Amino acid sequence: MKRSEIKRRPLADTTLASLEPEATAYRELDGDGLYFRVKPNGTKSWELRYKKPDGKWSWHGLGGYSDLSGAMAREKAREAKRLVASGTDPVQHKVAQREAKEAASANTFAAAAEYWFQRKAQDGRAANTLRLMRGYLGNDVLPALGDKLLTEITRRDCADLQERIEARGALNTGDKIRVALRQIFSQAIARGLCENNPASELGAIAAPTPKAKQYPHLLEPELPAFLQALRRSTSLAGAMDGQPARCCALCRVD
């Protein structure tokens, strides 16, 4: 519909949906300083005209249509007017909120873990090592701690993570993750992002990692006796079978 056909205000939902674009952008008053804006490409949005604390008039974008319905836009306009009445510029308030949110997201464990990982990559770690690091971060650590602020993570959070890993018998993985957690928090402390390392004492309650099993082997001084015993064993087996004694190449010692 054309804006010349608008019959009433506030603007009806059918009007909002059907208003046609024109060659230049235009605004239609919804009421009490709230305007509905239509651009030539058909994009529609809500704007509030308000007077800043310094007495100058300005515009405050509330959001796009149809994500923001008429009822929602009017409520947001009322909230902005309450800020204006208290002496706060709603545009500056919105900027401050966005910056605070960005600062908070930069202070999450996930951001600190990514910083740690990138430092490891820059140190020239092998591709397979980096793949393993990324794996235990993505599979175990980030699902448990990633969205939390560094300053909100407790020792109990870290201990719970360790216990879950140990419960499935992944003791070697648990050992690697303990090291990673300590390093991630240490870097964060050095960067001024937090003051404490809640993973610093995990080793005190960690299950012992299994010792590497050594395969049986012979030292060089033990080889002559082994070869003599092998020769006798092979000769004896051949005699018992009624066959000429045979021996392996190792036994042919001059």
UniProtKB/TrEMBL annotation:
<dbReference type="Pfam" id="PF13356">
    <property type="entry name" value="Arm-DNA-bind_3"/>
</dbReference>
<dbReference type="InterPro" id="IPR010998">
    <property type="entry name" value="Integrase_recombinase_N"/>
</dbReference>
<feature type="domain" description="Core-binding (CB)">
    <location>
        <begin position="107"/>
        <end position="189"/>
    </location>
</feature>
<keyword id="KW-0238">DNA-binding</keyword>
<dbReference type="InterPro" id="IPR025166">
    <property type="entry name" value="Integrase_DNA_bind_dom"/>
</dbReference>
<comment type="similarity">
    <text>Belongs to the 'phage' integrase family.</text>
</comment>
<dbReference type="InterPro" id="IPR050808">
    <property type="entry name" value="Phage_Integrase"/>
</dbReference>
<dbReference type="GO" id="GO:0015074">
    <property type="term" value="P:DNA integration"/>
</dbReference>
<dbReference type="InterPro" id="IPR053876">
    <property type="entry name" value="Phage_int_M"/>
</dbReference>
<dbReference type="InterPro" id="IPR038488">
    <property type="entry name" value="Integrase_DNA-bd_sf"/>
</dbReference>
<dbReference type="Pfam" id="PF22022">
    <property type="entry name" value="Phage_int_M"/>
</dbReference>
<dbReference type="InterPro" id="IPR044068">
    <property type="entry name" value="CB"/>
</dbReference>
<protein>
    <submittedName>
        <fullName>Site-specific recombinase, phage integrase family</fullName>
    </submittedName>
</protein>
<keyword id="KW-0229">DNA integration</keyword>
<dbReference type="InterPro" id="IPR011010">
    <property type="entry name" value="DNA_brk_join_enz"/>
</dbReference>
<dbReference type="GO" id="GO:0003677">
    <property type="term" value="F:DNA binding"/>
</dbReference>
